[in-house]
Amino acid sequence: MQPTICFVTTGDISINATAKRALGMAAPLVQRGWAVTILLEDTTENRHRAEIECAGAANVIFFTQHSALDEIRNKNRIIAHRHIDVLYLSAPVARNIVRTPKRCRLVVEHSELMSHFSGLHALARFKAMFFELLSVVQADALVCASHYLYDIFSQRALHMRCHPSMLYLPYAYNERVCHPIPVNRATICGGRYAERKVFCYMGSITHSYGALTMTAAIDQLRRSHPEALLIMMGHGPAYDEVRQEIAQRQLTHHIEQTGYVNEEDIDRYFSLADYFILPMRDTEQDWARCPSKLYMYLPYDRPIVTCRIGEPWSVLGDKGTYYQAGNAEDMATQMAQLIDSGNTHLGIAPKEHTWQARAEVFDQWIRGQAKTDK
Fold first, then answer.
1. Distance (Å, rounded) from C-alpha 311 to C-alpha 305?
2. 105-138 as b/e, with b when 16 or more CB fall inside 10 Å?
3. Choosing a second label site near 270 at 20 to 30 A (CA), which of 30, 69, 93, 100?
4. Each residue's pLDDT tens digit in the chain (374 positions)?
5. Which helix (H) or strand (E) holds 37?
């Protein structure tokens, strides 16, 4: 009998990235014999991304919600009328409170450590910790998107005398979305990128994601390398502040803000890049998280400027270019050395980090768990 899996997600993917695994692994799991259902909030971006990434392979059910309680009711109503072998919760949050059907394995994913987010007030921190611990008690299995999370939840399970199965399974990239294309810098956009050394960043434009650190680093770098250009892709709370910094520091020739970029346009920008930037902070939040952009950079085989923290350090090892977290001067120094070295290749096999590869690992693992239960 064909096994069935239902991914339960929450929010708009452009704001809440936890649905990325469901969309990424859906088609590969179908190829491996699964019937896949995904519960997605009905938003324009969610519909767009499901169309691009799932390509009709999965049964995507869109729900509308007017409140958290309304969302919980809708999800439970949908699940109650379906046969499900594996119920996969994309995050341990209140909006994903659902009843697990009989003879169904409950899998909960941890892609961040919300209880240790800086800036959270006490009640929100307590709520996050409650759902993190509840997942250890209730779930048959936990999927952790980083080594740090795997270690944390293994320790918590041990202390709580619980025994959920554990799997380390980081994010990945979709080959339909990320595939390098030939780019002629002499002709594209009127030749504005010709003779430039292009650094590319994609992500939220926020203080915590290093927006101002990158701005200050480029301000220093352009003094010794006037050919340097940073394409800053994305939007966020610090977008206008960065724009003001660019104007004040007279960096319009060295930093290009694109705003939010659609998935189908990512290739054009990434294929332009000579180097990528992935800022990290030396905080528990960043040690725990799995930066999805890291894996999207890999198929372009360009050096990545980041920090010896968490998943970037684990994945890149001695092939990464590292600066001291939060230090714009050191970031500029590493960027300058990278340009001077003439190195424009990363040298990591990207096929190991596709959603196809992740789905294969998950499939073998979850089928093994089912055999153990018998």
1. 13
2. bbbbbbbbbbbbbeeeeeeeeebbeebbbebbee
3. 30
4. 899 999 999 999 988 888 999 999 999 999 999 999 999 999 999 999 999 888 788 999 999 988 999 999 999 999 998 999 999 999 999 999 999 999 999 999 999 999 988 878 999 999 999 999 999 999 999 999 999 999 999 999 999 999 999 999 999 999 988 999 988 888 888 888 999 999 999 999 999 899 999 999 999 999 999 999 999 999 999 999 999 999 999 999 999 999 998 888 899 999 999 999 999 999 999 999 999 999 999 999 999 999 999 999 999 999 999 999 999 999 999 999 999 999 999 999 999 999 999 999 999 999 987 655 54
5. strand 35-41
Locate 330 and state its tokens: 């050191």
Residue 146 and residue 151: Cα distance in Å, rounded? 9
User: What residue has token string 């189908």?
Assistant: 264
- Label residue 20 exposed, middle or buried (CB < 10 Å: 0-12, 13-18, 19+): buried
Put the strands of the sheet holding 197-202 in their side by side order.
255-259, 228-233, 197-202, 275-277, 304-306, 321-322
Task: Count the neighbouring beta carbons within 10 Å of the beta carbon of residue 98.
Answer: 19
- Sheet strands (E) in 141-274: 141-144, 165-168, 197-202, 228-233, 255-259
* 80 contacts 70 by C-beta, under 8 angstroms: no
Picking from 257, 303, 270, the residue whose alpha carbon sits closest to that of residue 177 is: 270
Q: Quote the CA–CA distance of 139 and 4 in Å, as a whole number.
A: 17
Provide the terminal-to-terminal Cα distance of the chain, rounded to the nearest Å: 16
Q: Are β-strands 197-202 and 275-277 bridged in parallel, bridged antiparallel, or unpaired? A: parallel
The encoded tokens of residue 296 equal 């999207």
Ordered strands of the 35-41 beta sheet? 59-63, 35-41, 4-8, 86-89, 105-110, 141-144, 165-168
Question: H/E element holding 105?
Answer: strand 105-110
Closest alpha carbon to 13 in 69, 108, 90: 90
The single-letter code of the amino acid at 258 is T
Largest CA distance in the chain: 67
